[in-house]
Design brief:
Elements: E1 5-9, E2 12-17, E3 27-31, H1 40-46, E4 55-59, H2 74-82, H3 84-98, H4 100-110, E5 118-123, H5 125-136, E6 141-147, H6 153-157, H7 168-176, H8 183-187, E7 192-197, H9 202-215, E8 219-224, H10 244-264
Length: 265
Amino acid sequence: MDSPITGTAAGVPFTALPPAHNGAAPLIVTWHMLDAPRSDAAFAAALPMHGLPAWRVHLGMPMCGARMVDGSMDAGLELMRQDALMSFLYPFVRQASEEFPAALESIRAQLPVDDGPIGVLGGSLGGAVALRVLADTEIPVFAGAVVNAAVRIRSVVDLFPGDYSYDAESEKAADSLDFVAQADTIAGRAPLMVVSGELDHPGLRADALDLVDALGERSELLSIPGLAHPLADEPGIEPAPQLPLAGEVDTALTTWFHRRLADAG
């Protein structure tokens, strides 16, 4: 099995898994969930995509894993309580996507990855980051995938207790993270696999189906029977043995990216 390499790229912690030959190869970048698995190391264990002829570099989300404050998620939870959208969800996605270009440059300086188009993968809120890279940047991408993703941030806000009071600023922020509305741009950038657990939150699952409909032939839907939102058991911070349903997702993602790498090659 591939031995993980840990480090930081422009201040962003990462867990990298090399290809079997451990040499120069294409790059696939991932962003983890805030549910389990909620760190780059744990996400790498849940979805390692072993056997791919590519480097898989799993990036840490803000205030998670090595960037937890005082070794816990409490600081992030306090931001969530202050304002689920404007203190928590939106700034996390914005920071993770805005710090990515510098992190990508640093990864390429540290690891023997090629300078061609990359693959992107995100789970849950990390899915919004992957989709934002597709929708809002010009970084070349050969293929993308999302798993139980935050396709419309309003649906994620709806998961929190109480009715959220939107104002002009928060409406604008929410609109910027509605990727069904940006499907034409995403479809023009790269093919996308949308993985949706049949037991995921109903709003998130509905959004996944809407995204696939909007993307048309540039997308592929994979529904996983029995899969709820998380991909690992709690607490989901340290690497853990892969769960059987995560293994199904992992196999499908490996096949998807392998095929797209062949097409790109």
